[in-house]
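Review form for a predicted model. The reviewer records the input and the model, then writes brief findings.
Reviewer: anonymous (R2)
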Amino acid sequence: MEQLTRNVWTTTKLRGCNPSFVSTSDGVVVIDTPQLPTKAVVMRREAESHGPIRYLINTEHHVDHIFGNHWFKGAGTVVHHQGVHERFMVAYPELDPFEYALEAIPTDDPDGGALVPSREAYYADLNKYGIVFTGDLTLFVGDHTFRLLHTPGHTPGQVAVHVPEERVVFTGDTIFSECATWLMTSDVDRWLASLERLRCLDVDYVVPGHGPVTDLRYIATQRAMLLEWKAAVAVAVAKGWTREETVERVSFADRYPVDVGQEYMMDYIQRMNAGSLWDKLTAAPQVAGC
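Model under review:
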C-alpha cells in the first residue's frame, strides 16, 4: 500500500479497483477490497496494524470492488448503498462476477487459488450485511468524518467517500484516471451529474476507482470522455447504423490503455460500451403521448 497522506493508504497497481484505508483515532475504515485473494489478506493485515477495522465501505457492486470482502469477514461493519446491496455478487448476462474474479487468479494471483472457496461456499457466506442506506450517509469515526455521497451513473448504487480531514475523496469508478472507462450498463447522464457534484468538493486528492491518484482537474477529462462516447454512438444511430455496425466501428481504444492486468480486454470493453449506449439511445421513449 502507498501512503497518500498521514492517515490514508491506497494502491493503484493491482488488478482490480484501488482499495484503500484510512486510519483514525478510533480504528480503521476500509474503502473497497482487493479482487485478488492474497492481496486482500495482506491488506487486512496491514490495515489492522493501524488499529481495529471499524467499517468496510463498498463504493459499488462490481466484483473488483467487493470480491475481497470474503477475506475481511469479522473485520468491522460492512457499509454500502442499497443499490450495492441489491446487486452484490449477482450474475448478469453481461458478466458473472464469480467467474470473472476467478479468471484473474492464474495470471495475477496464482497463490490465491488455494484461498478461494467453492462458489456454493462463497455465496453461502457473503460478507454484505451491515449498514445499508439510501441517499447519503455520514459516519463519524474517532477524529475523522466519512461523507458517503450517492453518485449514481457508473452504477445505480455508486458512492464517493469524502474525508474532509484528509482533503481526499475516494470516487470509485466515477473516475477512471488515465485508463479506459467501462460504461457497461451505466447511465451516462446521471454519471455526468455526479461528476459535477464531486467538482464542488474542497479536496487535494482524488483517489479514482482505477488508475493513478489525481485531483479535481481530472473531472473535466472524465466528463469529456463520457460526452465523446455518447456523441459518437448518437452519430452512429443518426446514420442508421445497426447495433452490430456501431459495435464494430465506434471505439476509443487508442485514447487510453486498460487498467492493470486487463490488456486482453480492450476489445471487450469497447464493444460493450458501444453496444450498451446503442441500446439506450435506440430504446423506445418513455414519454407520455409518444
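Findings: Residues 7 and 23 are 5 Å apart (CA to CA).
Further findings: The chain has two domains: 2-224, 225-282.
Recommendation: see findings above.
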